[in-house]
From TrEMBL:
Protein name from the UniProt record: Toxin-antitoxin system HicB family antitoxin
GO biological process: regulation of DNA-templated transcription
Superkingdom per UniProt: Bacteria
Domain called HicB-like antitoxin of toxin-antitoxin system: residue spans: 19-124
Stretches assigned to coiled coil: none
Organism field: Salinibacillus xinjiangensis
Amino acid sequence: MSRYVKSLEEFLNLDYKMVITPFEDEGEKGFVVSCPEISGLEVFGETLEEAIEEVREAKIALYEVFLEKGINIRYPEEYNFEDEDFSGRMTLRIPKTLHKRIKYYSEDNNVSLNTGIIQLINDGINYADIKDMKGKIYNSLNKFNKKIILKVEYSMNDREGEYYNPSFKRSKSNYSVPKFHFEENPFALRQ
């Protein structure tokens, strides 16, 4: 099963985490409902019931925008995929050179070949998620201010504080989690 929503009906029936915040400004009172899992979903209602009803309308509008722009909508973080049959076992063929690199990685880390493969797959998925997050942050910033550049430092760390670069050579590192840096874009038009 895909990790992405396939239809509007499915999207409307999924329960995403919602954040409800009471709102008061210059005599106007109400509630703001937002969804941290769905970029752009934030609605206002004078009553809580009205705000929750607005969520459905916002989800319909966002689905159409995401569909038009080719953006995949993820399932909620807490979605239970237990209906799927995951045995924890899979078979694949890889080139001999990649097999050799994985073997060296596993030996270097004193883990079995299977554990080495699991670590590398996990690191690769985490890297892809960071890259995806970087793109979303960059696109959001770019809408408001083209003078900002987002740079990300990322490495796949082992327990000793060292990391493996793409050629699987051990290197020293002074960071273990992605670091985000915002810098002025030298190519932005000055106003």
